[in-house]
Amino acid sequence: RKEVEQDPGPFNVPEGATVAFNCTYSNSASQSFFWYRQDCRKEPKLLMSVYSSGNEDGRFTAQLNRASQYISLLIRDSKLSDSATYLCVVNTGFQKLVFGTGTRLLVSP
Amino acid sequence: DAGVTQSPTHLIKTRGQHVTLRCSPISGHKSVSWYQQVLGQGPQFIFQYYEKEERGRGNFPDRFSARQFPNYSSELNVNALLLGDSALYLCASSLETGVREQYFGPGTRLTVT
Question: Considering CB atoms only, which of B90, B97, B105 is closest to A95?
Answer without folding.
Answer: B97
